[in-house]
Amino acid sequence: FRSCNENFAYRSAVHRSLSSLSEESSAPEARDYRSILQEDEYHRLANSTIHNLVEKLEEYGDSVEIDGFDVDYGNEVLTLKLGISGTYVINKQTPNRQIWLSSPVSGPSRFDWDQATQSWVYRRTKQKLVELLETELEKLFG
């Protein structure tokens, strides 16, 4: 009889733990991005954003003295090398209709197109792609 009560108590505790995890989860809900943003529109928006970033970063590189600074764009991947400060990688993720960023400062982020603000936004933090880059580069180099 005692082991039956212990088993019931254990199962109840596990159930409560799992229930609280699902209630407390702050993970973004799953989305079907194909229904939100058609592929041709996604490519137009993502390509425009990345090409604008390439231009701005090249201009920025001309105005600062950073050893190892290099902007490279090829195969739909933008790479920004900052010498000892690290490397940023920005690329398109067509199946998810996202732009992905790998940052030496904040790590990986996935940006979705936000129609209301007309910008790429990281849903977890609500931060915009361009603003995140500006903030991080300012912190790194002033």
Automatic annotation (TrEMBL):
EC number: 1.16.3.1
Superkingdom of origin organism: Eukaryota
Subcellular compartments: Mitochondrion
SUPFAM superfamilies, sorted: Frataxin/Nqo15-like
Top-level class of the enzyme under EC nomenclature: oxidoreductase
Reactions catalysed: 4 Fe(2+) + O2 + 4 H(+) = 4 Fe(3+) + 2 H2O
Primary location recorded for the protein, binned into one broad class: mitochondrion
Stretch forming the signal peptide: none
Protein keywords: Ion transport, Iron, Iron storage, Iron transport, Mitochondrion, Oxidoreductase, Transit peptide, Transport
The keyword Methyltransferase belongs to this UniProt entry's keyword annotation: no
Gene Ontology cellular component terms for the protein in this record: mitochondrion
PROSITE patterns: FRATAXIN_1, FRATAXIN_2
Gene Ontology molecular function: any one: 2 iron, 2 sulfur cluster binding
A single BP term in Gene Ontology: iron-sulfur cluster assembly
Gene3D superfamilies in UniProt: Frataxin/CyaY
Claim: Disulfide bond is one of the keywords in the record: no
PANTHER family: FRATAXIN, FRATAXIN, MITOCHONDRIAL
The family this protein is said to belong to: Belongs to the frataxin family.
Record's protein name: ferroxidase
Source organism per UniProt: Genlisea aurea
